[in-house]
Design brief:
There is one protein chain. This protein has helices at about 5, 10-15, 45-50, 55-65, 110-130, 130-135, 145-155, 165-175, 220-230, 235-245, 250-260, 260-275, 275-280; strands at about 25, 30-35, 40-45, 75-80, 90-95, 185, 195-200, 205-210, 215-220. By secondary structure, it is an alpha+beta fold. The strands form 3 sheets. Strands 1-2-3-5-4 form a 5-stranded antiparallel sheet. Strands 6-9 form a two-stranded antiparallel ribbon. A hairpin with a 3-residue loop joins strand 1 (about 25) and strand 2 (about 30-35). The longest helix is centred in the middle third of the chain and has 21 residues, at about 110-130.
Length: about 290
């Protein structure tokens, strides 16, 4: 049954100026997203995701007060508090633009434009990570987080893997041992291509905004750089590193180590949220 049917009354109330059949639906790892003309409704897919909504709202309010040079979603309304019968939801402002199509990067001028704007984006996040107000609101990456992540993967995911899958995962987890504990920059945490919106002007893309700040922390910029590499490829990542004056060996090693864990991160989130679909997708190469 369509979400337009199951939540018709709620969506009509939250998006009164939009016709239900014209709403765009998207499924993320944590939320079902219903997109109206100027508002977006996020419906948590699991109870765990619903419980994280207040933290998400606080982070978005903090980000809205920063001069990042691009737009972030603004919280407009939250409902369905714990202990009530109402469906939990979060209404956000809609940012215009669309994710960049990969084939757009066949044009060298587009590649240069996109890389320059990514470098600027990362610089803004790094600069913002030093502000006292932001540091008081956003969570700090926990010391020993990668060690605990590796322990959790071994305990919770290894029983679901094949022998060869466990060997592959063990190699990837071992690489995390050398990662330093950093909390110097605002880190989006899921800066994949689908979460970055662009508008085209005079034949070139301009970054209009960044979505999905569920995993935002004060941490290591290598996490966001790893996501850029996974989403757009090695060539664009290298150009971003050069333009941002970040092209040193230690950073490359951190990026590679973090990028290799993306599927395991997805699977670990999924098993804890009881999300069978995302779990199966995350473990596809380990079974």
């Amino acid at each position: 049954m369509s979400i337009r049917t199951t939540h018709r009354a709620l969506l009509s109330r939250l998006l009164p100026d939009d016709h239900p059949e014209e709403l765009t639906l998207r499924q993320g790892q944590f939320h079902l997203v219903v997109m109206g003309a100027d508002r977006v409704v996020c419906l948590p897919r699991t109870r765990a995701a619903a419980a994280r909504l207040p933290q998400r709202v606080a982070a978005l309010h903090a980000l809205a007060g920063l001069d990042l040079g691009f737009r972030t979603p603004e919280p407009l309304l939250q409902g369905g508090a714990h202990g009530t019968d109402e469906v939990p939801f979060l209404v956000l402002s809609r940012i215009p633009g669309e994710p960049l199509a990969i084939d757009a990067l066949n044009d060298a001028e587009v590649v240069d434009t996109v890389a320059a704007q990514y470098a600027k984006l990362l610089s803004a996040l790094a600069r913002s990570g030093t502000g006292e107000a932001v540091r008081a609101v956003l969570p700090h990456a926990a010391e020993g987080q990668w060690r605990r992540f590796a322990e959790s993967v071994r305990a919770e995911l290894f029983p679901l893997m094949s022998d060869s899958g466990r060997l592959r995962a063990e190699r990837e987890l071992t690489a995390l041992d050398s990662l330093p504990h950093l909390t110097r920059a605002v880190v989006h945490g899921d800066l994949g291509a689908e979460n970055v919106l662009w508008e085209w002007r005079h034949g070139l893309p301009h970054l209009s905004g960044v979505l999905d700040w569920d995993d935002v922390t004060l941490g290591d910029p290598a996490e966001d750089l790893a996501a850029i590499g996974a989403g757009y490829g090695h060539e664009l990542l290298e150009l971003v590193l050069i333009l941002g004056d970040r092209s040193h060996h230690g950073l490359h090693s951190r990026i590679a180590a973090i990028r290799s864990t993306f599927a395991l991160q997805q699977a670990l989130y999924a098993i804890r949220d009881h999300d069978e679909e995302e779990l199966a997708d995350g473990l596809a190469d380990y079974c």
